From TrEMBL:
Its main location: nucleus. SUPFAM superfamilies: WD40 repeat-like. Gene3D superfamilies: YVTN repeat-like/Quinoprotein amine dehydrogenase. PANTHER family: NUCLEAR PORE COMPLEX PROTEIN SEC13 / SEH1 FAMILY MEMBER (PTHR11024), NUCLEOPORIN SEH1 (PTHR11024:SF3). This is Protein SEH1. The keyword Transferase does not apply.
């Protein structure tokens, strides 16, 4: 528990903020050169707490450190409903999906930290198609297909083509 203290401390600076929900996804595959890491997103009544950050374990200091915040410059802070870290089979970057009321953002996260310990980050797609919030996301074991579901009851499968353009591959609608 001591190694999670700075994660807890970063949240407690907001006083009595109410966390409506939180979503966590561990890096499913880490090589010997990578430390343990996870992405954590919050849905809160306090805008400053609404974020999704990648945390990595620092062996030297025996604690978790934030290494990336999944937000574009100028983005308004957004309630995070779900996060999902894709398995990485040979890519030179990680892929993380973040669901907010704006839809699903697909992020590429660099593998090598800069001199400040931060990882490079690029939002490569913004997916929309659900009517309402997306509450659950899951990658297939290859990290190539993302399944999403939410308030509308539909299950949607998303994939990128060879050019990196994301599209909805299939939809399974609820029947009455």
């Amino acid at each position: 528990m001591a190694e999670f203290q700075n994660v807890i401390d970063s949240m407690s600076t907001f006083g009595k903020a109410m966390c409506l929900s939180a979503s966590i996804s561990w890096n499913p595959q880490r090589g010997e050169s990578q430390e343990s890491s996870f992405v954590l997103g919050f849905n809160s009544d306090t805008p400053q707490l609404n974020s999704s950050k990648v945390w990595e374990f620092d062996q030297a200091h025996q604690r978790w450190l934030p290494v990336a915040e999944l937000a574009s410059p100028g983005d308004n802070v957004d309630q995070v409903y779900a996060v999902a870290w894709a398995p990485n089979i040979g890519r030179p970057y990680e892929v993380i999906a973040v669901a907010t009321h704006k839809g699903i953002a697909i992020w590429h996260l660099g593998l090598n930290p800069d001199s400040d310990g931060r990882l490079s980050l690029e939002k490569i797609a913004q997916l929309s198609g659900h009517n309402g919030e997306v509450w659950q996301m899951e990658w297939d074991m290859s990290g190539m297909t993302l399944a999403t579901t939410g308030n509308d009851g539909a299950v949607r499968l998303w994939q990128s083509n060879l050019n990196g353009v994301w599209h909805e591959e299939a939809t399974f609608e609820p029947t009455s």
